[in-house]
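Shipment paperwork, digital attachment
Item: protein structure file
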Amino acid sequence: MARIQLRDTTIYIEDGLSGTALSNETALEIWAGASESTTTPGVAATTDEVQEIATYTIDPIGGTFTLTLNLDGEAAFTTAAIAYNASAATVETAIDVAATAAGVAGWSNGDISVSGGDLTTAALVLTFDGTSVLQTDQGQTTIDGTALMLANAVLDLDIDTVVLNSTVTDQVPVGARFTLPDEVDSPVHTVNARTPSSGTTTNIAFTPVLAGGGANNTVITFLSQRITVKIGEGDLTWTESREMIYDRDRDLLDTVRLGQEQPVSVDLNFTFEYVTTESGQNITPVDALKQIGEATEWVSSSSDLCEPYAIDIYVVHNVPCGTDQDQDFRFQDFRWESLDYSVQDATIAVSGQCNVSNITTTRAASFV
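Attachment content:
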């Protein structure tokens, strides 16, 4: 039997929600846009082309952008990510690296000279004056800023094509977490409202704000619903067991073999300091365990929804100081079998079993 003292411990109770939807933001430019133009077209034997990337139309506070160049006679190529407030010299270097990697014929560093910027305050000016690009009518350079972090808060998205593993497969639960590709630092968002309130969900409001991404037809990946329980005092014990079968030959011990798998037994006794949900819902640990109250739309963590409702419990031992990593314990597909309450002691005791033969233990700098 293993045991953990629960001081300096956080418990995360999660359901098994998963699925996807598509952003339906056809009329909304999510990222902090900047426009491109050719101010001086290139003319053979007389004039070098000059192009301009205008300042952002919506001020970003972080993230990156890329430039795609369409040189005459060459395949289009794209720079690596460039910081949102990069200097002209940094942008010029990024173009040099990308052009060299693309094998642009006759390219020399600096063939496109960049001035002005940064884009938060002034336009970037690209002058095509090097040997490989001068005095030629070039294709338009374009900017992609979907990985920029917005200053203006984007707090809701129109969505369609919702496919979830819940009973109502096209209704996004309030409390569902999700991610979007190409966001800065890959934040996890939590749904705090949906439209309409029932039936097929067409709009979700959420927190925190978008950090880029979200353009039309972007895939939204839904994650489990979660409550966070900060433990004051308590105790957690669990037992992993296995059945051993001892075969005999003429009444003498002979061979040994494994019998049937045995579920992990769990006993949890605690007082909690507070419970939080990013969605603002009032969900208690008992609500989450029983799928009641504002947890009625929670989805069983079991892949077989015909089985009794189950949840996953993550116990994270938070190292209070120093550089040691946190230790995480995952109790998968837990089903409660008894609940005991003490008003006098302000404690909850829960016992049950997990539909696994052993728990998962990891060490990490942080829990996501």
